[in-house]
Every structure is written in structure tokens, then in C-alpha cells.
Design brief:
The complex is a heterodimer of chains A (529) and B (534). Chain A is mainly alpha-helical and 529 residues long. Chain A contains 21 helices and 5 strands. In chain A, the strands form 2 sheets. Chain A has a 3-stranded antiparallel beta sheet, with no helix packed on it. In chain A, strands 1-2 form a two-stranded antiparallel sheet. Chain B has one domain. In chain B, a hairpin with a 4-residue loop joins strand 1 and strand 2. The chains are: A mainly alpha (529), B mainly alpha (534). Chains A and B meet through helix 18, helix 19 and helix 21 of A and strand 1, helix 5, helix 6 and helix 7 of B.
Chain lengths: 529, 534
């Protein structure tokens, strides 16, 4: 047979690709520390695990941050490494910085053991923790024997998810992107099911997220396969080149793109692929919800930006109309259904769907302005939403968090500071000036308008006005209503949660008043192909 | 670089931060707040005299302050005033201490501290200064929207029984208008980026290219700005939030809302709609004039029919705003000067009317006209000030409003005879509503249903007034219904002085306003139909 000699002839020597360790240092640090963290879990004595894990995780994030600043400080040229599978350019660096900062805030929330004695995570398996009792109304402390201990596996899981997110938004070919997608998703599925209170809700959230997430991954993979069939390569740049020459089947290209984008939009919780978001946000432990809402969104939109710009920028007139419709759907769904919510966490979930629509406006502009606006929006939104979930975790009854809106009535009287912080953050989500929400909206909307998307901007503004109503409703409840006699109390947060909320509020304020520096960073450069 | 305007902006803000923590000491909170308000007033006086009328004709803005802010948006933190902005800043500086004097001992809803209220007042004042002093469209927008927040909290936290509804309605109305304006603001930026080397929000640059923007675009942008300002002003049919907000707001906040905050809408017409979109302004003027005249008649008619005294004031304001809008869009120097002066005068007279009504309500425990009667017999000073405020409101010659209303009408007539003639009917209604409400509340047999517990849930605990003989009613009312206190008279005095002084000698204010009005007319590109102003 003639194949055999050909094979023998074509076999190249296996060359290890060159690795720019400086460029991908931050990501390697996070992923490496995640492995160490697993070892800690296996080897360290139980009573020391929490302290070791917290110290390790914080040191990791600090170290990765320093590595990132050290690398970015030398104003490096945009580069690709690991045989072109990872692109380290200005947007990547910005996204990494955002992810690390938001990851730090999330870790602070996750590590806190003062709000919920022993932390928000179960320390033993679901059977032993009395899940049925926790569902009941009058249940007291659950799992009293293990109350001071905590599921420390959540730390390596968080680090793996964070590492996956960093790889996800730097991935320059679709296969790497898929692997990163799984690396970031699998730990998240697990983390959703770890809530100490309301076990059933939490487990339901985890299963729902896992099933729907698996579907989304399958969509992504199918799209990847079609695109490989079209372009003969999984590299974004190769797909872009192939798409520019048009003698191949557009069905493969557009079908592949559609499936791929469905997978990505799912992760970013853009409507109409949002169905999991409210349930998962509600059921997951609040620190994990914060982590998902802030970091997953950043990573997913980072990937969407890169795929659309680098891979499909040349054919943007083909897909643009569809994404217009998606953006409108997301904004409308988020704003309108958000109106009917009675649970704070679900309400923020719908708000995040509306925000995803706003972010998508910037992402589909495919202009430098749109890129920088989107990046800035992700940064601003991440910190605001992180702080909001931090506040949500503080308002509690004996049964755990008081997430029903009616329980928030008159909060300003009991705890003026917490109510003030919450009101400020909600106004930021509503996009009032002097908060980061306004600056971010402005950046994205002006980019969209300069790119000829005036009708979408109008829809976005109307959606903002509608969404403002449900943010206002919380403020009305907190400030203008009388507190119920058996209402929730606001626990005094420990240092970790206080730090996380403070960071979130300060960044929200700072990006509202003096956003120039962050905007310049976001506008530092475009994607390398 | 002149720091005066920046200090005017920052001082009340610092005051708000200083007052807010004094939750447990009402006395200290009041004193500190008043101190800041008076210092702001002093600073405003200094600013007034630093403004040079002589150079105003050639220099569009004075006392300018300008630093980089967000370069990538093309916006700078730049402040500056023209005559119109200056008088409005001065008006704010006068009204705020007066409002504080009024609210000195006001009964707040349970659990609310006076510190919070005064801090919100000062915060609003700071943002108002920002709105009037901004010379960058983006900066203006920021202040314009941010202003909602303290006012929202003032209504929602310190207001009447339906305060939640009123506060949310106010906020959503304004926010919707503001967001549509945001679209127009961004649109303006995009339009400037097409015509200038780089996009900008600088007012002067945008005005310079105003003529190059095609009229169809101008109309869209104009409508975006117009809607926000028409809601804020408010013009009929965008007015429905005002009666609710004014009725439910605490009197102090209501004065600030009707007296100053609503002027932002008209100020926006004069500063933004006209100079930035001259062609659209001319094309759409008939539409605005129609709304203005409808507002005059409709507002006046509803004012006649009101039984709630705070809503009454709100509807008289809507009628007055119609006059002001008529003056602005009649495009003559006289009419626009009149409109600008009207803004100041309306702030003073309606502010005073609102305060006197507030004083009456504080005594009678009721907002209903029908719960009062013969008040003049037991509280002559209160009745006298009520009459004066009412007469100033109907623009009796000798009061300040007469000058401005007359200027508006005489200036509008040559270009818009039909609209002006229709508007004069409003004057008759004005006489009707003012005199009728005076007659019903202040004259006639003594009543005091509110005082005596005729209104459920309030009152002194005595039985219903109907069950008791008239003489006993009179006696009871007399003992509980005190005339104005020294503090209240002191609060009203500055306003009374201003009403009379500006009624006979409006020149100091007009001199400041005129050059800026002339500039505005030039920017629109129209000349007066019948020669100059004097």
C-alpha cells in the first residue's frame, strides 16, 4: 500500500513548542497553585486546611497579579505562544487583570467564616448534613457537629476555575478554548452544589447547571467540528483567512459559527440562552454566585470578543443581524422578567442577563472603541455585582440568608450603612452617573452608536429605564418601608467580607468619577491574530 | 482658572458630608447645615459681583474652570457661567437657607433624622450648581441625572403618606427622560466626531458646528434633549409626576423641587436646545408653543379645581412654566429675557407660596382647602403673607412676576400673536384660582376640621367639628391655631423683600441676563421682529 511510506515520510520530529513563560506566567501560577492546593487538601491535617488554603490562594492571586503587572509593565508586544494556541495581547492582559482582581474579591467572600459560622460550604456529604431539615422553615443550625469546619475543596476548585477562565479568554484556537471551557466549567458545577443551607435548592442548581452546561459544551464542540471541516484548522486566524476567500460552503461556516456562539452565549448568560441563570444564581452559595456573576461573565465575554473579532471579523455583516436580535432579546428578557422577581438573587440574575445584552452591544461593534468599552464594562460590572452579592450574604435570618425581597423592608433603619451601600450599588447597576455603571454604559453605547446601531441603543436605554424600576423597588423597600418585627438581621461581617465589599464599592465609585486610567488600559491595544 | 465656581460646587457637598453623620444631634445638624448654606450664599454674592456684565456680550462664559477628566470620551471637567446660569445659581443659594429655616422644627416621619434631610438638601444644591455651571455637555448630563438621587430620597423618606408612589414616579419619569437624552448626548458626540478632528462634548465647540448638522439629525437630537427637559420643566403632557411629587414631598423639598429643580428644564431649553440645534428649534417651535399654551390653560384650569393645596401650587407652576416656555420659543430678546427673569421670579414667588401653604398645613393638619375657613381672623399675618404670595403668583403689577410676565407677553406678541393672545386668557384664570383659594381658606366663617380631628388619623383628639356648636369650634381652633412665629416671619422676609424689590426695580437681574439672551438669539440666528429690548 502506498499509504504506509507516506505516513512514515510525513512523520515530523516531535518538537516541543516554544513557551513564553513570562507572558503566560500569571496563568501558570494560578493553575500550578491549584494543583498544590489539591495536595494540601490530601495531606494537610483537617484543622489546618482552612488557614493553609486561604494563605495559599491569596498568595497565588497576589503572585499572579505581580507577575502580570511585571509583564505588562514592560509594555510587551502582543504575542502568541505555545505554538499559537494562546494569545497574550493587550485585551488578554486586561482580562487577566480583571479576572485576578475579581477572583481575589470572590475568594475573600468564599473564605469568610464569620457571616455563616464555619463558612458557606458544607463540610460533609449531602446525606449527613440534614438537608431535609434545612428546607423546613424552623430549622436551626444544621450539622452542628461540624459547624466550625468547612469544605476547603472549594479553594482548589476556585483556582482551577480561575485558571480555566484565564486560558479561556487567551485561547487563540478553538480546541484550546474548548478545553479551557471545560476546565472552568466543571469546578463551577461542583461549587454550585456546596451550599450549607437550602441543600436541595443548591443541588438542584448544580444539576441544572451541569446538564445545560453539558449541552452548551456539546453545541460548542459541534460548531468547532463544522468549522474545522470548513477551514481545515481550529486556529481563529486560519478560520478568518478561510472565511475571507468565499469558494467554500457557507453552510459549514455559518452553521459552525452559530453553534459555537450558542455555547459561548450560554456561558455569558445572554438571553435567550439564559434559562439556567436565575436558578443557579439563586441556588448556589452566595460567594459562588458572586464568583460566577463576576468572573464567568468576564471570561465568557473575553472569549466572545476574541472569537468574533479575530475569527469572524471579516464576515461580520453575515452574523451581525442575528446577534442584534440576541442582544435585544437579552436586554428585554432581563429587564422585563426582572420586574416580576421577588428574590434578590434571582433579581440580580435577571439584571445580569440585561447587562449581558448591554455588553453584547459593545462586543458586536468590532471596533477599537467597542472593544475597550466592553472590557471596561466587564471590569465595572464585575466589581459592582461582587459587592452586591457580598451585601446579600450579610442580610440573614436564623434560617440563612434572607433573600426574599419582602424581608428587606426597612433595612435602612436597622442598618443604615449596609442599606446605603446596597442602594449605591443598585444605582450603579441602574447606570446613574457618578457610578461605574454609567461610565461603562456610556462607553458601550457610544461605541455602538458610532458603529451605526442607533436602534439598539434606543432599545438598550429603554431597557435600562425598565430595569431601573426593580432596582428602585429594593431601595424603596429598604428606605421607605417600615421594618417587619421579625425581620432579618444584618450580621457584622468579618474582615474578609468587609474587604471584598469595600473593594467593590470603592472601584464602583472610582470608575464612576475618575475612569480615565482604566479606560486607557482598556484601550491599550487590540487582539493579535 | 477661576476657583469660584468649583468652590460653589464643592462647598455644599462638603456640607452634606459634614451634616450626614450628625444623626443623633438635631441641633448640631441644623446649625452646621445652615452655616454651610449661608457660606454658600456669601460665596454666591461674591460670584455675582465677580461676574462682569460689561464683557458678557463678547465672552460667552465667565469664571471658567477647566481640567482634564476623561480624555477618551472627549469630555473635560469644565465650569463657567453666563448671566442666566448665574442668576439661577444665586436663586438656589437664596432658596436653600430659606428652606432650612422653614424645616428647622418640622415634624419628620418617625425615625427620620433632620441631619439626613439637611444633608440631602445640601447635596441637591451642590448638584444644581453643577447643572447650571457645566459647560461640557457630558458633565451637564452627569449632574442632571445625579440630581435625581437626593431628590428621590427626600421625597421617599421624608414625604407624605403616598411618598413611595410619588418618589418612584418622579424617579422613573426623570430617568426615562434622562436616558433618552443620553442617546441624544451620544448622538451629538458622534456628530461632532464627524465634523471635528476629534469628538468633543465642549459646549462651545458643539455650538460652533451646530449649523453644519443636517436638519433631520438636528430634529432627532433636539427631541432627545427636549423630552428630558420637557419632563423636568414640566410641560403638559409630561407633567403628571409633578403634582404627585410636590404634594407628597416634604414642604422644604417641594420648594426646592418646584422653585429651582424644575428650572433646569427651561434652562436646558435656553442653553442646549436652542443654541445646539438652531434649525430644529425654529422648525419645531410651533409644537413647543402649542404645548406651552395648552400648559398655561390646562394648568390654570386644574389649579382652579384643586382641593389639595400642595397640588394647587404644583398646577399653578405648570401654568407658569407654560408662560416661560412661550417666552423661550417666541424668539425675541424681550420674550427670552422675560422668560429668564420669570425663572428667578417664579422660584421666589412659588417658593414663598409653597412655604406659606406649608405653614398653613402644619397648623391645620390637613392639605384640603375645604378644611379651612376664616383663617385671617385668627392668623392675620399668615393670611397676609398668603395673599402677597398669591398676588405675586398672579403677576399683580408691583410684584416681581408682573415684570417678567409682561416682558414675555409683549415680546412674544409680534412673532406669535395667536399663541400670545391665547396665553393671556391664563392670566384671568390665575386671578380666579388665587383669589378663590384665598377666599375659601382665609375668609368666611372659622373652620378647622383638620385641627379638630375631622381628618382621620390626625388632629388633636377632639370630636368631629360638626357635632359641636360653631362658637365652641371657633374657640378650640383659636387656641390651637397660632399665627406665624418670629422664625417663620424671618424665613419669609427675604422672599417678600425680593418680590417687592424686583417688582419695582428688576434692572440688576435683567442687566445680568440680557447679554446672555442676546448671545442665545445670535446662536439661533434670529433677529428681533421689532427692534431691540430697549
Amino acid at each position: 500500500m502506498s499509504v504506509l511510506p507516506m505516513l512514515a515520510q510525513a512523520e515530523p520530529p516531535l518538537v516541543f513548542p516554544t513557551v513564553d513563560y513570562g507572558a503566560i506566567g500569571p496563568m501558570l501560577i494560578v493553575l500550578g497553585a491549584a494543583c498544590i492546593s489539591v495536595l494540601v487538601e490530601a495531606l494537610a491535617p483537617r484543622h489546618q486546611r482552612w488557614s493553609i488554603q486561604v494563605a495559599l490562594t491569596l498568595a497565588t492571586l497576589a503572585g499572579a497579579g505581580i507577575a502580570l503587572v511585571g509583564y505588562a509593565g514592560g509594555s510587551p508586544e502582543p504575542t502568541t505562544t505555545l505554538a499559537g494556541t494562546l494569545a497574550v495581547d493587550q485585551p488578554t492582559l486586561f482580562l487577566w487583570g480583571t479576572l485576578l482582581a475579581l477572583g481575589l474579591g470572590s475568594i475573600l467572600l468564599i473564605a469568610d467564616r464569620s457571616v455563616e459560622p464555619g463558612g458557606q460550604f458544607v463540610s460533609t456529604g449531602p446525606e449527613a448534613s440534614g438537608s431535609r431539615a434545612a428546607e423546613g422553615s424552623g430549622a436551626g443550625a444544621v450539622g452542628t457537629t461540624t459547624v466550625t469546619q468547612m469544605q476547603t475543596e472549594v479553594f482548589p476548585l476556585t483556582l482551577f476555575a480561575l485558571g480555566g477562565m484565564m486560558a479561556f479568554c487567551a485561547a487563540n484556537d478553538l480546541l484550546t478554548m474548548f478545553v479551557a471551557l471545560e476546565v472552568l466549567s466543571l469546578p463551577l458545577y461542583l461549587m454550585c452544589g456546596l451550599a450549607r443551607r437550602r441543600r436541595l435548592l443548591s443541588q438542584e442548581a448544580a444539576v441544572k447547571y451541569f446538564l445545560l452546561g453539558a449541552f452548551a459544551s456539546a453545541f460548542f464542540l459541534y460548531g468547532l467540528a463544522l468549522l474545522f471541516g470548513y477551514a481545515g484548522s481550529v486556529k481563529l486566524s486560519a478560520i478568518s483567512v478561510a472565511a475571507a476567500g468565499t469558494d467554500r460552503s457557507d453552510t459549514l461556516l455559518l452553521g459552525g459559527l452559530a453553534l459555537l456562539v450558542v455555547g459561548l452565549l450560554f456561558k455569558a448568560s445572554v438571553g435567550p440562552f439564559h434559562a439556567w441563570t436565575p436558578d443557579v444564581y439563586q441556588g448556589a452559595p452566595t460567594p459562588v454566585t458572586a464568583f460566577m456573576a463576576a468572573c464567568t461573565k468576564v471570561a465568557a465575554f473575553g472569549a466572545i470578543l476574541r472569537v468574533l473579532t479575530v475569527g469572524f471579523g471579516t464576515i461580520r455583516w453575515e452574523w451581525r443581524g442575528v446577534l442584534w436580535a440576541v442582544a435585544v432579546a437579552s436586554m428585554v428578557i432581563g429587564a422585563v422578567i426582572g420586574l416580576t422577581q421577588t428574590d434578590v438573587k434571582r433579581m440580580i440574575a435577571y439584571s445580569s442577563i440585561a447587562h449581558a445584552g448591554f455588553i453584547l452591544l459593545g462586543a458586536i461593534a468590532i471596533t477599537p472603541q467597542g472593544l475597550s468599552g466592553t472590557l471596561f464594562y466587564l471590569l465595572a460590572y464585575g466589581f459592582t455585582t461582587l459587592a452586591i452579592f457580598g451585601v446579600v450574604s450579610l442580610v440573614r435570618t436564623a434560617d440563612g440568608e434572607a433573600t426574599h425581597l419582602s424581608q428587606w423592608a426597612g433595612l435602612a433603619k436597622r442598618s443604615p450603612l449596609v442599606a446605603g451601600v446596597m442602594a449605591f450599588l443598585l444605582l450603579a447597576l441602574a447606570g446613574l452617573p457618578l457610578t461605574s455603571g454609567f461610565t461603562a454604559k456610556f462607553a458601550v453605547f457610544s461605541a455602538a452608536l458610532s458603529d451605526g446601531m442607533a436602534p439598539l441603543v434606543v432599545v438598550a436605554l429603554v431597557a435600562s429605564a425598565v430595569a431601573a424600576f426593580f432596582y428602585l423597588r429594593v431601595i424603596v423597600l429598604m428606605y421607605f418601608s417600615e421594618p417587619a418585627p421579625d425581620g432579618p438581621t444584618v450580621v457584622l461581617p468579618g474582615a474578609f467580607t468587609t474587604a471584598a465589599i469595600t473593594i467593590g464599592v470603592l472601584v464602583t465609585l472610582l470608575l464612576g468619577i475618575l475612569p480615565a486610567v482604566a479606560l486607557d488600559w482598556a484601550a491599550g491595544g487590540t487582539f493579535v491574530s | 482658572m477661576n476657583l469660584l465656581l468649583l468652590s460653589l460646587l464643592v462647598l455644599p457637598f462638603v456640607g452634606a458630608l459634614a451634616v450626614a453623620p450628625l444623626r443623633n444631634s438635631a441641633v448640631a445638624a441644623r446649625r452646621v447645615a445652615l452655616l454651610f448654606a449661608l457660606a454658600e450664599l456669601a460665596l454666591a454674592v461674591v460670584t455675582w459681583f465677580s461676574y462682569s456684565v460689561a464683557t458678557a456680550a463678547t465672552q460667552r462664559f465667565q469664571l471658567e474652570f477647566d481640567v482634564t477628566w476623561i480624555p477618551s470620551f472627549g469630555t473635560r471637567f469644565s465650569l463657567g457661567v453666563d448671566g442666566i446660569a448665574l442668576v439661577l445659581i444665586a436663586l438656589t443659594a437664596v432658596i436653600v437657607p430659606v428652606v432650612m429655616g422653614f424645616s428647622w422644627e418640622e415634624k419628620l416621619p418617625e425615625g427620620r433624622s433632620v441631619a439626613g434631610f439637611f444633608a440631602l438638601l445640601l447635596g441637591t444644591q451642590s448638584l444644581l450648581v453643577g447643572v447650571f455651571a457645566a459647560t461640557d455637555v457630558f458633565l451637564f448630563y452627569v449632574f442632571f441625572e445625579a440630581m435625581l438621587v437626593p431628590m428621590y430620597f427626600m421625597i421617599g423618606r421624608f414625604g407624605g403618606p403616598k411618598r413611595q408612589y410619588a418618589a418612584v414616579k418622579f424617579f422613573l419619569y426623570s430617568l426615562l427622560g434622562g436616558l433618552i437624552m443620553l442617546a441624544a448626548v451620544i448622538g451629538l458626540y458622534v456628530a461632532s466626531a464627524d465634523r471635528l478632528p476629534a469628538g468633543t462634548f465642549r459646549w462651545a465647540d458643539l455650538q460652533a458646528i451646530a449649523g453644519q448638522i443636517p436638519e433631520s439629525t438636528q430634529i432627532l437630537l433636539f427631541l432627545g434633549f427636549f423630552l428630558a427637559f420637557a419632563i423636568k420643566a414640566p410641560l403638559v403632557p409630561f407633567h403628571t409626576w409633578l403634582p404627585d411629587a410636590a404634594a407628597e414631598a416634604p414642604v422644604g423639598a417641594g420648594v426646592l423641587l418646584v422653585g429651582v429643580l424644575d428650572k433646569v428644564g427651561i434652562f436646558g431649553f435656553l442653553r442646549y436646545c436652542l443654541p445646539l440645534f438652531p434649525a430644529a428649534s425654529k422648525t419645531l417651535a410651533p409644537l413647543v408653543l402649542t404645548l406651552a399654551v395648552i400648559g398655561i390653560l390646562y394648568g390654570a384650569l386644574l389649579a382652579v379645581m384643586q382641593t389639595d393645596m400642595k397640588r394647587f401650587v404644583a398646577y399653578t407652576s405648570i401654568a407658569h412654566f407654560g408662560f416661560i416656555a412661550l417666552g423661550v420659543f417666541a424668539f425675541s430678546t424681550q420674550a427670552q429675557s422675560g422668560a429668564a427673569l420669570y425663572m428667578v421670579n417664579h422660584g421666589i414667588t412659588t417658593g414663598m407660596l409653597f412655604l406659606v401653604v406649608g405653614m398653613l398645613i402644619a397648623r391645620g393638619n390637613s392639605r384640603l382647602v375645604t378644611d379651612y375657613g376664616g383663617v385671617a381672623k385668627i392668623a392675620p399675618v399668615l393670611a397676609g403673607t398668603f395673599l402677597l404670595a398669591g398676588l405675586a403668583s398672579l403677576a399683580l403689577p408691583g410684584t416681581n412676576s408682573f415684570v417678567s410676565e409682561f416682558l414675555v407677553l409683549i415680546g412674544s406678541f409680534p412673532r406669535e400673536p395667536v399663541f400670545t393672545t391665547l396665553a393671556t386668557i391664563g392670566i384671568i384664570f390665575a386671578a380666579l384660582y388665587v383669589l378663590w383659594i384665598y377666599q375659601r381658606t382665609m375668609t368666611g366663617p372659622l373652620r378647622g376640621d383638620g385641627v379638630l380631628g375631622g381628618v382621620a388619623g390626625v388632629g388633636g383628639g377632639a370630636g368631629p367639628g360638626t357635632a359641636t356648636a360653631p362658637s365652641i369650634v371657633a374657640e378650640r381652633v383659636r387656641t390651637r391655631f397660632k399665627d406665624l412665629s418670629g422664625r417663620e416671619i424671618a424665613v419669609l422676609t427675604p422672599l417678600i423683600v425680593l418680590i417687592l424689590v424686583l417688582g419695582f426695580y428688576p434692572a440688576p437681574v435683567l442687566d445680568v441676563i440680557d447679554p446672555s439672551v442676546v448671545s442665545t438669539m445670535n446662536e439661533v440666528g434670529l433677529t428681533d421682529p421689532v427692534g431691540g429690548i430697549r
